[in-house]
Amino acid sequence: MSTTPTRPPTVRQPTVRTQEEIAARVKALEAIMIEKGIMTTEAVDRLAEIYENEVGPQLGAAVVAKAWTDPDFRERLLRDGTATCRELGIGGLQGEDMVVVENTDTVHNVIVCTLCSCYPWPVLGLPPNWYKGPQYRSRIVREPRKVLREDFGLDLPESVEVRVWDSSSEMRYWVLPLRPAGTEGMDEQALAALVTRDSMIGTGVVPAP
User: Fold this and answer.
1) What is the per-residue DSSP string for 101-139?
2) Has 113 been labeled as part of a binding site?
3) What's the predicted TM-score (pTM) here?
């Protein structure tokens, strides 16, 4: 019995778009929604203002500072990031399922979203462009030490383990950075002023005062 050879199925590779292409598509979608009356220009501007000025890294920094000075709060934060942030009135859109991972002397954590750009908005604000870009999203998983060193100037010793956490729409990670030396006498407000957005992503560390 003869058989007719069949062609192997064609596997489509995912399309990797540049940041410029993504921005153009977003702008086009925004224009269509405004034109159809689904949203207004004022609503778009107000949303951007909220996440630039009212919600952002300064709130995450306040959470970090409290965790550094309150062991019970820190324990709750690591156990249930979403509920514990709500104790400080922090939460909302894109912050429904937050998981906090702690840096130590021997472990350094860094976050990414390999599928898109899932990110804990209530504590970190809007994601930076590089976080959404295909270069960071693909390389940080494969070669985290190299990316941290070459792209962010963070050269970690070999004795420190680097762990990469992949966020999703169901679970958004962020980092509780290591408290720097020389901050023992500082209050929460002063400590919060030291905390950077990148230190809560894991692409940086909190500098000593």
Assistant:
1) EE--SSEEEEEE-SSS----HHHH-SPPHHHHSHHHHHH
2) yes
3) 0.77
